[in-house]
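New to this. Please check this record:
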Amino acid sequence: MAAVEDARKALARPTLAMLPRVSDGLSFLFVDICRVVQTDTGVCAEIETDAGGVHRTPIPTASLACVLLGPGTSITTPALATFMRHGTTVVTSGAGGVLHYGSVPAPGRTTKWLDRQARAYADDERRMEIATRMYEMRFGEEVAEGTSIERLRALEGQRMKGLYRQLATKYRLKPFKRNYDPESWDEQNPVNKALSAGNAALYGVAHSVIAHLGCSPALGFVHSGKQHSFLFDIADLYKARTTVPLAFSLHASSSPEREARFKLRSDLKLYRMIPQMVRDVQILLDPDVDDIEVPSGPSSWRVVDLWDPLAGAVAGGVNYADHLVGEPR
């Protein structure tokens, strides 16, 4: 009888072949205002009830690729250890999962995507290919073969200027100039405030995706020189259809930063984009797998540099549409 029971336990024990893929079942789970604990039956999220008891909700650790712990959440060491054994990345995030404070990748996770990222980053030709694919993915148009990185920056600048003009006309605003000046933040217009708040949320979601895949946020292909270069690359792919339109819609708001964060959290627009972000990062790194004005002031305000194989690092936060003399507009 004991032998039969041992055999049943062995069959129930998960094997490598049984572990879920990223695309299978649940992938990302956001929890907040609870305590994540390990019980005799598994990992649970528990909260106190009005009657003074404790309500527990089981968490399917074996089916999770990434769990995001929001505000008001604590986790015990045994519960964290279970996530690590199941290969689940644990991320601490802001409300709604739209900010990233830190992450703990599972030690057993593959370095497949980090390897591909590092190899492409170290090869100027492949890096240029990925930078080109980012532009094509961002704006939905093909780029002529041999287009230089300078020309890509100019094309990106033209497209963003056009988008700003279009939205300014729609909301009957004066011509819009992107401006990020921490020293005079209170003097910024509502659109700039909402855009900065929305982009911060977008960076957080992109950071969570990059952490889950095991990629390095520092190895960017368009941006360079900062620990968050790659997440800026990825976040740029979605700004034109998420944070930019949202910011212009809040042009008359008295609390544009708060409303931008609230709308992104309440609608979970960015959170729902996570599966697409995962897929886009994978396609960028492996296409065969089934993307302003410089603020006046101290140079330390520059958030990140841009990669250039000839000129080296060039300033980020610059609209390069006017930097190519004689090029068609």
Notes: The radius of gyration is 23 Å.
